[in-house]
Each structure stands twice: as structure tokens, then as C-alpha cells.
Specification:
Helix content: 55-70%
CATH topology of the largest domain: BirA Bifunctional Protein, domain 2
CATH architecture of the largest domain: 2-Layer Sandwich
CATH class of the largest domain: Alpha Beta
Radius of gyration: 57 Å
Number of domains: 3
Largest sheet: 8 strands, mixed
Strand content: 5-15%
Order of helices and strands: EEHHEEHHEEEHHEEEEHEHHEEHHHHHHH
């Protein structure tokens, strides 16, 4: 047995959808969800009083995430300026934190973050409900199913979902709106979409991450509404309508004429873009689509659209039926009465389904008319484009014709003058021919003269350059000869000095030998000569030391000097 409420043997199911929003988009969605006065006045699909809606908002008195319920008629809460100021405050905090960060590229360059206008600092999540009953392609919930859903789903389960979402992704829930003024109760939630811990918006790149995010939301929805509704099964062929699609099918009209008037307004608005009055070349006003009576054209289109959409629009004419539906909705709050009423309503619903099938079969042949109309509209568009092109071509031809007329008049005048001056023209042609011949000859001579002058100039330049180079060569040769001579002289001087050094070395060797002999002799007789040390006082220290070392080496003892 499924863990969800059932109606007619079918379980309640839920669907969770999300959309990431910029600041501008978030303001518009917030205004829509709280039914801001100017915004709500443009909503044409509301069925009940918006004061029956319920709203839970993040308390503006703290930043801890606590939420409180407010009344639907709170004028300050619904004020456009208040909404803008509230969301901009959160936006500025996210922007300041993001731009305080920087990123480093592979090349080492550091760049500070910059918040772009298209960055999505907010998100909206829509929670809607249905049943797992197999439905026709364009078939929605039955009134019985709608009433059952409206009685069973509650705001406290949505708060549970919001807590799951905030805890998982590190964001804040700013608004929970329970809409009871439309056909089926649903919830629209506004969240921040910025993670201060990671300093970035919550985004999912790639199909895989996006699908995972979608599965996570469905799982959180199933957990929040456990025992009431099931999450959608993976791989299910059942498709839920989005909010825009739901709103398109929720419009009601009290009479057929009201519906026709609405269609007429829409067609007039669109047709006026293409059916325009134009001034022709002859001053007669005409329409671009060649339709003299646009009212008849619009009326026929209105009737055609009405016939095509009768089986998709419910026109409610019975005021008592509306009252009965309201009473049934209130009675369904009692679960005991729900089951008893459901059986009768399901039987009535089956009869209505059968009748609806018969109507669809009757109107099946009308589907081909749409293709016929499209073909005719295409033909009209093509003809209009061709007409505009032909008009442009006609205007161009008219302008060319006027210019040709002016040229013809000028040609006539020139012909008259030409007839009077045929002789002059002949002589002039001869003179021009002679002049052309002389000019050609002169041009040839000029060209030849220029060539000769260029050649002469080139030869003179080369001659001057050669003379300069010859003079340089002579100077360099003289300098080389002078240096060669000086080198020879220095080599002779070096040779003479080398010979002198050799002679001096020979003499030094002889003197050194003689000195050694003298020192040896003195060392031998030193002991025989009294006061020998005084004899050496006048001698250089080098000689003294050498004699002393010689004597010491001889007898192994020193002599007192």
C-alpha cells in the first residue's frame, strides 16, 4: 500500500520545480506571489479572494532564519517599495561578499570578482499537486481531485521542505506563499541563492548535475509530504503542467459573449500590428492586407477561434453550480464527508468524460481549418511583401524617368549647337589629333631624358665612391708600411738588449765565482786574524752574513763578531 492519500483508487503525487532568478526577476516573482496591488490587477486567472492566501516570511528583525506568518492584507508587506528594498538589501550583502573575493588564473594573474547583472542571487521553487491517474493529453485534474487536494495539503509540510532545502544548500528562505485564490492549491517559495561559505551562487553545470539537483528536490518534497503525497517516480511518463500552463487553463467566463469579447480584444491587438492604412500614389487610402472592412475580418477570426477552442474552455453560466462548488469545498474539510461525496462526484465525472469525448469527435473535423487559415495567412503575407517591393520598384522607375527627360532636353540643345559647328568641330579634331601625336613624342623624349639623367647620376655617384675608396686604400697602405718599419726597428732593439743581457749574465757568473772563492779564503784565515770582525764593518750586510754562514758551516761553532 502506498504511503500517500488516495482518491478514487489513485494516490496524490507532488511535483517540485525550481528557477534561478536575478534581482529584477526576483522582485517581479515576489510581487506576484504576495499579490502586490498593481501586479495582482493584471492577473486574469484568479478564482477566489486573495485574502484567503497565507504567507510566511523571514523575519526582518533578525538574521537567524526564523520565519513568521503575516496577514494577507498587510499593506506594508504588499508595498512595492518595501519588496524592492528587502530584496536589494540581501542582494547588496551577497554582492559585497562576492566582490571581496579574487581568483588566480594559471598564468598567475589575480583578478577581483565582479558581480554581473545576469548573476542569479535568488531562486523560486513551486510545489504543486496532482494524482497518478492516467489522463488524456490535454486533460487536467477533475473538480473532485482538485477539491480533495485543496483540503488535504497544508502549510506546515511546506515549512518542513524549506528547512530541508536551506540545510542542504546553505541558503535562506525569504517567502512561503500558499495560493488559495486559484483552481488548485499550490506553494511558491523565494530563496536566496548565494552560499556565503563558498562565496558563490548555487549553480549546476551540465545535464548530470542538473538532473541530480532535480532528483534531490523531489526526494525532499516526498520526505516533507510523507503520508500525504508521493514524489514523482523516476522515468515516469506522466508530465505535470508548469505554472504558466496551469494559468492558461484556469480562466473562466460567465457567458459565451464574454469569452468572444476577450478573444476579439486579443485579435484586434495583434491584427492592428499588421493591418495598417496606407496612402497610395493617387491619394486613396487602402489597407496593407487589401481588406476593406477590417471589422468583418476580425469578427470572422473571432468566431473561428471560438469554434476551435470550445472543447478546451469551460464557460460557466450556472451561478448555482459555482455556489455548490464552494459549499463542497468547505464540506471537504471533514474527512468523513469527503469519502461519501467522492462516490457521487466520480460517477458524475465519468458521465461528463463520456460526453466530452463525444464533443471531441464532433469537432475533430475542424482541426484542418487551422492549417487552411495558416496557408491563407502565408499567402497574404507573401502578397503584401510583393506589393511593397513593386511599389519600391515603381518609385525608382518614376525617378529614373524624370532624370531621362532632363537628359533628353539637354541632348536636344547640344545637337542644335553641334549642327552649327560641324566645321569647327572637324578642325578641332584635326588639331587635337596633331596635338596628341606631339604630346606622345614629347612624352617619349621626356622619358628617355629621365633615363639618361638617372644613368649619368648613377655613374657619377659610383665614380666619386671609387675615388674615395682609392684614397682610403693609399692612406691605409702608407700607415701599414710605417708600422712595419717601426716593428723592424723594435725587433732590432730587442735583439740588442737580449745580447747585452747575455753578456751581463756571463760577467755576473764570473763575479759570483770569484766572490765564493774570496769568502772561502776569508773563512779559512779568519781564525788567524785578530779582530777579524772589525774588518767587515764597512762591508754590506749581505757579504757579512754570507761569510758568517760559511765560517759557521766550517767548524760547527759561531764566531763572536
Amino acid at each position: 500500500m502506498s504511503n500517500a492519500l488516495q482518491i478514487g483508487g489513485h494516490s496524490l503525487v507532488l511535483c517540485v520545480r525550481s528557477e534561478f532568478l536575478t534581482l529584477k526577476e526576483a522582485i517581479i516573482r515576489y510581487e506576484h506571489n504576495v499579490r502586490e496591488d498593481k501586479h495582482a490587477s493584471k492577473i486574469g486567472y484568479l478564482r477566489g479572494n486573495s485574502r484567503n492566501n497565507r504567507y510566511i516570511v523571514l523575519s526582518e528583525y533578525n538574521n537567524s532564519g526564523h520565519m513568521r506568518e503575516i496577514t494577507a492584507g498587510d499593506k506594508e508587506f504588499n508595498d512595492k517599495k518595501y519588496i524592492k528594498a528587502l530584496l536589494r538589501e540581501y542582494h547588496e550583502k551577497m554582492k559585497a561578499d562576492y566582490e571581496a573575493q579574487s581568483k588566480t588564473y594559471k598564468n598567475g594573474k589575480v583578478v577581483k570578482n565582479r558581480w554581473r547583472e545576469n548573476m542569479v542571487g535568488f531562486s523560486e521553487i513551486v510545489i504543486s499537486f496532482g494524482t497518478d491517474r492516467n489522463k488524456e493529453p490535454k486533460e487536467g485534474l477533475s473538480q473532485t481531485e482538485t477539491n480533495f487536494i485543496n483540503a488535504q495539503v497544508s502549510l506546515d509540510r511546506v515549512r518542513r521542505f524549506a528547512n530541508y532545502y536551506c540545510a542542504k544548500y546553505g541558503v535562506k528562505c525569504l517567502l512561503i506563499a500558499e495560493h488559495n485564490d486559484e483552481k488548485t492549491k499550490h506553494y511558491q517559495l523565494i530563496f536566496t541563492n548565494y552560499q556565503f561559505e563558498n562565496h558563490k551562487n548555487l549553480r549546476f553545470d551540465g545535464k548530470g548535475e542538473t538532473l541530480k539537483f532535480g532528483r534531490n528536490m523531489q526526494e525532499m518534497g516526498g520526505a516533507a509530504f510523507e503520508g500525504i503525497a508521493l514524489r514523482g517516480e523516476p522515468g515516469s511518463k506522466m508530465r505535470h503542467k508548469n505554472i504558466k500552463q496551469m494559468h492558461k487553463t484556469e480562466k473562466e467566463y460567465s457567458t459565451e459573449q464574454e469569452f468572444k469579447n476577450k478573444i476579439r480584444q486579443s485579435i484586434v491587438y495583434e491584427a492592428r500590428k499588421y493591418i495598417k492604412k496606407k496612402e497610395s500614389m493617387f491619394g486613396k487610402v487602402y489597407l496593407r492586407l487589401e481588406i476593406e472592412d477590417d471589422k468583418a475580418f476580425i469578427t470572422s477570426l473571432t468566431n473561428l477561434v471560438l469554434d476551435q477552442m470550445k472543447d478546451n474552455i469551460n464557460i460557466v453560466t450556472d451561478s448555482e453550480l459555482k455556489q455548490t462548488v464552494k459549499e463542497l469545498t468547505n464540506q471537504l474539510l471533514n474527512k468523513g464527508e469527503v469519502i461519501a461525496k467522492n462516490n457521487k462526484l466520480e460517477q458524475s465525472n465519468e458521465e461528463l468524460i463520456q460526453e466530452n469525448k463525444k464533443l471531441k469527435e464532433i469537432n475533430a473535423n475542424l482541426n484542418n481549418q487551422d492549417e487552411i487559415i495558416k496557408g491563407r495567412n502565408l499567402q497574404i503575407s507573401n502578397l503584401s511583401a510583393e506589393l511593397i517591393q513593386k511599389e519600391d520598384e515603381n518609385n525608382k522607375l518614376k525617378s529614373r524617368l524624370e532624370n531621362i527627360k532632363v537628359d533628353i532636353a539637354q541632348i536636344d540643345k547640344l545637337k542644335q549647337k553641334a549642327d552649327q559647328s560641324d566645321t569647327i568641330q572637324s578642325k578641332l579634331e584635326e588639331a587635337n589629333a596633331d596635338l596628341e601625336s606631339k604630346e606622345k613624342t614629347n612624352q617619349s623624349l621626356k622619358q628617355r631624358n629621365e633615363e639618361l639623367e638617372a644613368s649619368l647620376s648613377s655613374e657619377n655617384t659610383l665614380k666619386e665612391d671609387n675615388d674615395s675608396k682609392r684614397l682610403q686604400i693609399v692612406k691605409l697602405q702608407t700607415s701599414i708600411n710605417s708600422k712595419d718599419q717601426r716593428i723592424s726597428e723594435l725587433e732590432g732593439e730587442v735583439k740588442n738588449k737580449d745580447e747585452t743581457i747575455e753578456n751581463l749574465q756571463d760577467k755576473l757568473t764570473v763575479l759570483e765565482n770569484f766572490k765564493m772563492k774570496v769568502i772561502s779564503f776569508i773563512s779559512k784565515i779568519s781564525n788567524l786574524i785578530p779582530n777579524f770582525s772589525r774588518l767587515l764593518d764597512d762591508e754590506p750586510n749581505e757579504v757579512k752574513n754570507e761569510i758568517k754562514s760559511k765560517i759557521a758551516g766550517k767548524d760547527g761553532m759561531g764566531i763572536g763578531f
